[in-house]
Amino acid sequence: MRSPIVRGVVGSVVVALASLVTSVVPQSSWVASVPLRHSLPGRMVGLTFMVAGLGLMAWAWLTVGRRVMAGERLPLLRMTAYWSVPLLLAPPLFSRDAWSYAAQGALVAEGYNPYDVGPGVLSGHIVEAVDPMWMQTPAPYGPLPLAYGGLVAHLTMNPYQLMLAHRLLAVLGIVLIAWAVPRLATACRVDPAFATWLVVLNPMLITHGIGAAHNDILMLGLACSAFALALTGRWGTAAVVAGAAAAVKLPGGLVAIAIAAVMSPLAGRLHRFASLVIAGAVSVLTLVTVGALTGVGSGWLGALDVPGLVRSPFSIANLVGMAASGVLGWLGEDTAAAQALQIVRLIGMVAALGLIAWLSLRSSIHYAARAVGVALLAVVVLGPSAHDWYFLWCLPFLAVARPGRRLTTTITAVSLIFTIAAPLNSSLRGATIPILTTTALVIAIALPLLNHLRTLQPARKVPVTTT
C-alpha cells in the first residue's frame, strides 16, 4: 500500500467493519447478532482490527502531511471524501451520543420537552442503545439539532435511520469546515493546503465527526463559516451564523471574538468592546429566535451542567477538584470533600471566562483566529466536562493562526493519539482485559508514528497550492 490514499481508504474500511463488533447498537438490530460480539476473544479481535484501522488512517495522514509540506499538490478534499465514505453507514464509533440524539428527537416528535425529561420516558427500540447515564437527564444541546431530530422523527422512529440523519449534520459540518478553512488560512497568510491537511483530512475529525456523528462538528462548521464570512465584510451575516453555531452547542458563539476583531481591526479597546457587544447581541438574538421559531425554546441553558456528570480526566478542573476532594476525604473533612469538586470547577470556569474577556479586548485581526482557538481550548480544559473530541473545537482556529513547528507538532501528536486511542471509551468500562490489551495496541501503533513528528515543518505562505 504505497499510496497514502489507498492506505487511508483501507484503514477506514477496516474501522467500519470492526465497528460491527465494537460499537454499542440496539438489541433489536441485526448487528447485535454478529457472532464475534458475544465472546471476549471475538470482541478482542474487533478491538484489534479497530485500532489497526485507525493506525492505518493516521499513518496515511502523516505521510500526506509530509508531502504537502514539501510543496506537493494533492487532492486533499477528494481524499477526505474517500476516507469518509466507508464510515457513512457504520454504527456510531466510540460513543453512544448519536443514539441519545435519536431519542431526543423522538421526544420532540412525541410532544415532550427534552429540556424537562430524558429519553427514559420513551420505550421500545429507540432507547435500547442510549447510555443508561443519560436516560433520565435533560438534553444539553441547542434547539437546532433537537428541532431537526424532531422533524426526522416524525418520518421514522427507527433509531438507526435517526442516527444516520444526525450523521448527515456532521457531514454538513465537515463540508462547511472544508469551505471555510482555506479561506481563513489565506487571510491569515498560511498555506491553505497545509491548513486543509491539518484540519479537514485529520482522521480525528473524520472518525469522531462522521464516525461518531457528534453534533460538535456542525457547531464547528458554522463557527468557521461565520469567521470566513466576517472576513468578506458581511459582519451581520457572520454574527447570525455565529448565533446558529451557538444554537447547536453554546461554545460555538465564541467565534464572535473574531467577528468583533474583524469589525474594528485598528480600533482601541473601547471600539473593540462596542464591536463585541454588537456581534454578541446579534448572535444572542439569533440564538433566542431559533429557539422560538423551532418551538424548542431555551430551556437547554438550565441543562448545561448535565455533561459535568462525567468526571473527565481531560479537564484540569476535574483533576484538581478530584485530587482536592480525595485529600480532604483522607483528612476526615467529609463536608469539604463533597464540595471541593464543585468549587474547583467554578474557579475553572471563572478563569476561562476571564481569559476569554482578555482575549476579546486585546486580540487584533491578526490574532483573531488564535484568540478563538485559545478561548475554546480554555473552555475545554478549564470547564467541568471535556471529552477527547472536544479538542476539535479549537483545531481549525489554531491551524490557521500561523502555527510554528512546535504548535504543528503538538496538534498533530494530539490528533494521532486521540484517533488511535479512541476505542478506549466508556463502552469498555470495567472490562480489564480489553482495556489493558487495547492500551498495549494503542501504544505499539502510536509510538512509531509519534517518532516521525520531528520531520514535520509547516509551510506558511504558499497560497496558490490547490486542495
TrEMBL record:
It is a multi-pass membrane protein. It comes from the Bacteria. Its main location: membrane. The chain crosses the membrane at residues 47-64, 164-181, 193-210, 217-235, 241-261, 273-294, 314-331, 343-361, 367-386, 407-425, 431-450. InterPro entries: MptA/B-like. It is found in: Membrane. Keywords: Glycosyltransferase, Membrane, Transferase, Transmembrane, Transmembrane helix. The keyword Transmembrane helix applies. Belongs to the MptA/B family. This is Alpha-1,6-mannosyltransferase/alpha-1, 6-mannosyltransferase. The lineage of its organism: Bacteria, Bacillati, Actinomycetota, Actinomycetes, Propionibacteriales.
